[in-house]
Amino acid sequence: MAVKVSINPEACIGCGLCISLAPDAIAFGDDGKAQAIGEMDEATADDVVASCPAGAISR
Ligand code: SF4
After folding, report:
1. Whose alpha carbon is nearest atom 6 of ligand 1?
2. Cβ-based neighbour number of residue 42 at 10 Å
3. N or C: which end of the chain has fewer CB within 10 A?
4. Distance from Cα 48 to the centre of ligand 1, integer Å
């Protein structure tokens, strides 16, 4: 199932890792923080949640 993650802009440090893992679903906003712009598959969502060094991403 496709899911859209939530990203806490207060916690995001703008490293870009999540964007490299899900370039169709997450992009940088004008503030330099990651924003969810679309959906991704379950496995990718698990990956981005687990990979964020700031713990900013949740499902
Ligand atoms: S992986 Fe986390 S800290 Fe890095 S850009 Fe994405 S949300 Fe921000």
Report:
1. 18
2. 11
3. N
4. 8
Name 3's bridge partners. 40
pLDDT reported for residue 26: 98
Instruction: Name the domain count of the chain.
Output: 1
CATH of the domain at 39: 3.30.70.20
> Which residue's CA lies nearest to atom 1 of ligand 1?
52
Whether the full predicted model's pTM is greater than 0.90, yes or no, is yes
Q: Convert the pLDDT of each residue in 12-45 to its tens digit.
A: 999 999 999 999 999 999 999 999 999 999 999 9
Residue 1 lies in a domain: no
- The number of the ligand 1 atom at minimal distance from the alpha carbon of 51 is 1
HSE (side-chain half, CA atoms, 13 Å) at 51? 14
Please give the residue range of the domain that contains residue 24: 6-58
